[in-house]
């Protein structure tokens, strides 16, 4: 199995694995790969998506299993610190649950855990948007609206045009079915969420952090789902501190732990 992968840093250094969200691909991490000196970095396209589309259909379990083999083959010492955004964060959580020996620590950004209210309507709405944006002009507008960096907008358009509805529907089914695990292996886990992402994602961050004794949850005040597109320096400073075991930037607001009934 060959995943299209962006790679940076020096081989032999500790590896950081970056997992992208559903509407984008590995290019979203390009600036971050260069912002972690002293680390070996890997950013693959997830199986079934973008330039790894031939490895579909996408499933969370299948992606986690494929990444475990990928880590064993490509990562220093067969282990990684994993960073995942949105769908990639759900994959990272699945990887930690299924293959804990491959993960030293996990950072989960903007992950949605169900149940998702009005899920059938969400799927129908996504189909309508997908069907309505089958033109380069509309996709270019969508790229600007989503905050896609100018250098990657053409790639966003081409990848969006190449994505089929069955492939996207598979992603939606998996994403909507994802639930925060009741328990995860005891590794340092960082859950980050934009404060403007909405109550569901804020609750999700707290639930994911609460699934392991090593979990912490923080919000980025005044920012939405793609907050790191406009605050890349905050993401990079956060990751550098997190990887070094140092205090996180003061810009982040701690979230209280999720309530879990006794027994």
Automatic annotation (TrEMBL):
GO terms for molecular function: hydrolase activity. The keyword Protease does not apply. SUPFAM superfamilies: alpha/beta-Hydrolases (SSF53474). Pfam families: Abhydrolase_6. The lineage of its organism: Bacteria, Thermotogati, Deinococcota, Deinococci, Deinococcales. InterPro entries: AB_hydrolase_1 (IPR000073), AB_hydrolase_fold (IPR029058), AB_hydrolase_sf (IPR050266). Residues 16-235 form the AB hydrolase-1 domain. Keywords: Hydrolase, Plasmid. It comes from Deinococcus ficus. This is Alpha/beta hydrolase. One of its GO terms (cellular component) is membrane.
